[in-house]
Amino acid sequence: QTQAPIQFGLMVLEHDLFDEFESVVLILNEFEEDIIVFPVDTYHVYAIRAIIEKRNGSSHKAKSFAEKAMEAARRSSSGFQYHASLGLVRDLETNLHRKLQAVISNN
User: Fold this and answer.
1) By C-alpha distance, which of 63, 9, 71, 67 is closest to 35?
2) Averaged over 26-35, what is the pLDDT?
3) Which one of 6, 12, 45, 66 is CB 3.0 to 4.6 Å from 20, fit for a cystine?
């Protein structure tokens, strides 16, 4: 299983490649079910979606996606019985998280 759609979305946001936003959304739409395994995956997918929606002027959608990302970040268990700590969101001191917080605070 590949995380390429998430990595692509993160790269597009990191480098402000606005022309690729539509491609990111299309790719996430196509592969979302396959790439969300752990809370960190959920966090990344919804953070990417939130930031793109905010930049596209859809504040309501952006906030909804941001809340889902933050919910995933708060999870303390992966849901896997023998690997409960695998795939949790560990680092919230990132540019992505700061952008996500800006979406929630509506800045």
Assistant:
1) 9
2) 92
3) 12
